[in-house]
Amino acid sequence: MSAAAELAPDLAHALKRLKLRTVREMAPEVLQTAKVQRWSPEELLRTLTQAEVRSRDASNLAGRLRGAAFPVKKSLEEFKVAESAVPQATFEYLASLEWIRAKENLVLVGPAGTGKSHLLVALGHAAVEVGLRVRYFSAIELVETLYRGLADNSVGKILDQLVRADLLICDELGFAPLDLVGGQLFFRVVAAAYERKSLAIASHWPFEDWGRFFPETVTTTSLLDRILHHATVVVTSGESFRMKEARSRAAPRLKAADAVVSAKALKTTRQEARGATQSSGRGS
Predict the structure, then answer these.
(1) Where does the pLDDT of residue 218 fall: very low under 50, low under 70, confident under 90, or very high at 90 and above?
(2) Domain boundaries defined on the chain
(3) Main-chain phi, psi angles of 216, to 5 degrees
């Protein structure tokens, strides 16, 4: 088949103005194929429009992933529900993402290594893949972002940007205590999202200990009131997944090391036995 002819300049210009980049790039080859294979007009149009839709979907997905700012990639398929403290029914409800569409919240509370961050990020990825907008922060990053807004009087603008997301994820809440201003700024985020967007929060601390990192009792009470009003709460427990994985990785190395030590010990024992036999022979 000969090389496809270029599009007429007016067509190329019109497709560029309409921002149909994929159609513009594919059209010469597709038009030639359609002519040779005698496609119907509908088949030609369908091929070009489907290619444009696939391209835009991929571009939009990539943009949502960049905007989400996830620290790592995690999936719900990788989450070990049976080994976690998350009930299967609760996991299935969270994985359905209906709670995000209903503007409900999710709070995960439990010790380190029990799957909180994995589940938050995996749910965020799942939401992005179905077309929802997500933004991930650690609690420290979120408050630092708001503090920068306070410095240049743009806190209101930042809050507006945050609540454009369908799901706002705040991980590691309570890792560091907040000062009075930081607590008030965090409260403004929760208040802005209340019954408008979904929040997903993870913390090591049970709710009765949130006063450890929020300096004002009134702020803490009002904060929890808004977060928990429409929320699924999951208390995680058990041994750290990271510690179990570290042990499983270390076990083969320890076995190999033990085998080397045993081999060396056996070799030493044999050498000592031969030496003792030779000495006995010379003595006789």
Answers:
(1) confident
(2) 9-66, 81-235
(3) -115, 130
CATH class of 81-235: alpha beta
Four-residue CA torsion sign, 150, 187, 107, 210:
positive
Report the SS3 class of residue 239: coil
Which run of H or of E encompasses 30?
Answer: helix 21-37
Residue that wins the pLDDT comparison between 279 and 220: 220
Indicate the pTM of the whole model.
0.79
> Nearest-5° angle of CA 197, CA 199, CA 205?
160
| Rounded Cα distance, 111 and 126, in Å | 24
Q: How far apart are CA 146 and CA 17, in angstroms?
A: 39
Mean pLDDT to the nearest integer, 267-273: 61
Mean pLDDT to the nearest integer, 103-132: 96
CA distance 222 to 219: 5
Residues 167 and 3: their CA atoms lie apart, in Å, by 48
* Tokens 């597709």 belong to residue: 30
